[in-house]
Amino acid sequence: MHELLVAQSHIQQLTTQLLKEQTEAQMIQTEKMVSLGKMVASVAHEIKNPAACISCNFEFLDSYYENLMAVLVAYEAEVTEESTKIKQLKEEEDFDFILEDLPKIIKSIGTASDRLTETLGSLHNFSHLDEAKPTLSDINECIDSTLIILHNRIKYSIEVIKNYGDLPLINCYSGQLSQVFMNIISNAIEALGDKMAEQKKASRAWQPQIKITTEILETADTEFVAIRIADNGPGIPLEIQEQIFDMFFTTKPVGKGTGLGLAISNQIVTKKHGGQLLLSSHPDTGTEFQIILPIFG
Length: 297
Description:
Elements: H1 2-78, H2 84-92, H3 95-126, E1 135-137, H4 139-149, H5 151-154, E2 159-163, E3 170-172, H6 174-201, E4 209-218, E5 223-231, H7 261-272, E6 276-282, E7 286-294
Parallel strand pairs: 2-4
Antiparallel strand pairs: 1-3, 4-5, 5-7, 6-7
């Protein structure tokens, strides 16, 4: 009897210690994300004014170019005979090539300016990790912002298919949901990368895909927003699927994963938003996470 009580005491101590470690790890991770959010917001703020200057002045640059070209065309129509000096200068400066290349350069500057503006908007959305209260947010926009941040990891090899429904604004912590989307999509990218390496070794043609679907789910009592993020990667083994949301559980090598991403994502969805985070995965077929959120949270 005494040994049984001692064993029970040890189990209680271990349980208490484990809960303490889980709480501390979650607090550290949360503090990291809040610090990251503040840093991202600060960097985005510093870049915002120069980016706005480039964006606004680009419109003038494009307009001035069009005006100069109109003057040049009118001038060449009026002055049919060019002097020897003008002809020589045109040849030295490769004038025909400049006329052909300059519009392309201006267009590329405009594209880069738009890209910079989009990225700054995405960083601004992602930086709302320390928001004190929920606000009305566009879920489709939150997902797009996450995809822009992850663009460099996706653009060369992974096809992203977006099937967005016509969603109302929902009351949520948009920065924290962006973290959830970031965790799930990042995991999908890594899983697809692993399968790509296997397919390449086997010399098999295969197109990695991430499919994102948003829609409204209606029940007798209320309406929900459903976000499904699916990949056609290797899938998650059946024997570990029940552990996938456990704190500290990871299938990644030591130093590559903390085992906190999906655990914290699950708490953000269930505890902070009163929703559900569901998993459906089949080996060699792929994995789908479904996030279900009440519209009026």
